[in-house]
Amino acid sequence: NYQASEQGKGSGAVSICLPCFRFHWVQLSLVTAKMVGMNFSSSKQFVKPPQRGIFPLDHEAECKPYMEKYLKCLKEEKNKHHKCRDLSKEYLQCRMDRQLMASEDLDKMGYSKETE
């Protein structure tokens, strides 16, 4: 928002449109104030580890059929996981049987008869 000055039209000289300059200066001041308030260097993100710890990947695809059945069920049931409960239980049991995750009572993981 600069305007050519009357004196130097051919010389390429410019003068500042004062109302425009004031508007943009105020806008810049507000943006700068907001950015000062956002201290990017001190913002820390806290990442929580998985509840059951880290477990090995199924490199041999031993439990892949169970996983595929479970994922297919989720897709067919529009992600209503409670309808695929038995398949997820089978998948977890497969992983535990092959030492791909720590063995644990499935009842403690929410698969007891009472929680159905």
From TrEMBL:
Entry keyword set: Cytoplasm, Disulfide bond
Name the record gives this protein: CHCH domain-containing protein
Natural source organism: Odontella aurita
Localization per record: Cytoplasm
Keyword Hydrolase: no
Keyword Cytoplasm assigned: yes
Signal peptide boundaries: none
Homology family: Belongs to the COX19 family.
InterPro entries on file: COX19 (IPR051383)
GO terms classed as biological process: mitochondrial respiratory chain complex IV assembly
GO CC field: mitochondrial intermembrane space
Main location: cytoplasm
